[in-house]
Amino acid sequence: MLPSQILLRPMRHVSATVTRSASSYARNPASRAATKKRLKTESSQIEANVSFLLPTTLVAPPLWRYPRQPSKFVHMLWLHLKARFDAFKSLVGFKVMSAPKLLMSRPRFKAQRASAIPTAKALHVQMSEAFAAGDRESLRSICSTELHRSLVEAIDARPRGVRTEWELVKYDKTWYYPRLADWRIAMLPRQTGGMTTIKQAVVSISSVQRLARYDDTKGGAKINGSERVRHMLEHIVLQADINDKTYEHGPWRLWGTIPESTYESYLQEIADSQVAFSEDQRQARS
Question: Class of the 50-285 domain?
Answer without folding.
Answer: alpha beta
